[in-house]
Amino acid sequence: MPGQQNEVTFRFLAEPTDVNFGGKVHGGMVMKWIDQAGYACAVAWSGAYCVTASVSGIQFVKPILIGDLVTVRARLIHTGTSSMHLAVDVQASDLRSGEPRLATSCVMVFVALDRPDGRPAPVPAWVPRNEDDVRLQGFAQRLMAMSKAMEHEVVALHPVAQRD
């Protein structure tokens, strides 16, 4: 039911097929996991098909190793008319020690569509429920302002880059 589920958590083990030649999970795989969890959260909130509009401030903090328990948590931190801003954190834990560590974090923006090749569709409004929610919503709003400024810079450099 739209407007009810504002968080999604995926858990799985990092596998040998996920790693690069250095023995660590490569960034592209981590970004795939982030996009999957973000998509699941956006669809759960909106009840509609969603597309990724942007990924901001991605930080690769610590490596993920083969056999680590990986937790990808996506949670809603701001809604617009048809957009949803999600904070996504990737945590890795060594199963032997149980020690968790933040591996990657970012903020994603998804847009709900009325059909896969359609137009933006309205999403239920999200309201912060506690201090942490308010803090994260403020973070999303600051990122929106920075993103808008960057968009103007890109268009100034490359006029063909203007969005529809």
- Mean pLDDT equals 93
Q: What's the tally of helices?
A: 2
**What is the β-strand count?**
5
- Any idea what the radius of gyration is? 17 Å
Helix content: 25-40%
Strand content: 25-35%
State the separation between the terminal residues, measured CA to CA. 30 Å
Category from helices, strands and their pairing: alpha+beta
Mass-distribution shape: globular
What are the segments in which pLDDT stays under 50 over at least 5 consecutive residues?
A: none
Characterize the main sheet. 5 strands, antiparallel
- The H/E string reads EHEEEEH
Question: Which strand order do you get reading across the main beta sheet?
Answer: 1-3-4-5-2
Structure in a nutshell:
This protein is of the alpha+beta class and 164 residues long. The protein contains two helices and five strands.
Summary keywords:
164 residues; alpha+beta; 5-stranded antiparallel β-sheet; 2 helices; 5 strands
Please give a structural write-up.
Helices cover 29% and strands 34% of the residues. It is built from two helices and five strands. A hairpin with a 3-residue loop joins strand 3 (69-79) and strand 4 (83-93).
Give the helices and strands, then pairings:
Layout: E1 7-13, H1 27-46, E2 49-60, E3 69-79, E4 83-93, E5 100-113, H2 131-157
Antiparallel strand pairs: 1-3, 2-5, 3-4, 4-5
